[in-house]
Amino acid sequence: MMNCRRATRLMSESKERPLSATERMALRVHTMMCSACRRFDGQLDFLSQAAQRYKSKPNPDDEPKA
Ligand SMILES: [Zn+2]
Q1: How far away, in angstroms, is 36 Cα from ligand 1 center?
Q2: 66 occurs within a structural domain
Q3: Does residue 40 lie within any of the structural domains?
Q4: Helix axes 35-55, 4-14, angle to 10 degrees
Q5: How confident is the model at residue 60 (pLDDT cuts 50, 70, 90)?
Q6: What's the pTM value of the predicted model, to 2 decimals?
Q7: How confident is the model at residue 56 (pLDDT cuts 50, 70, 90)?
C-alpha cells in the first residue's frame, strides 16, 4: 500500500493532471483504508473550489462590503 505522503501528493496532482489508471487505483485503495487521507481529499476539494471562485473574481477588493 502506498503511504500517506504519496497518497496526498497524488491527490494534489490529480487536480492538475489526469492520473494514470494505476495511480487512481492505488489512491483509491489507500483512501478506502485511510480516514486521514479521505479527510484530506475533502479539504482539497474545498480548497480548490475556493481557489476557483477566487480566480473568477479579477479584483476581490472591488467587492461591496456586506
Ligand atoms: Zn493515508
Answers
A1: 6
A2: no
A3: yes
A4: 30
A5: low
A6: 0.68
A7: confident
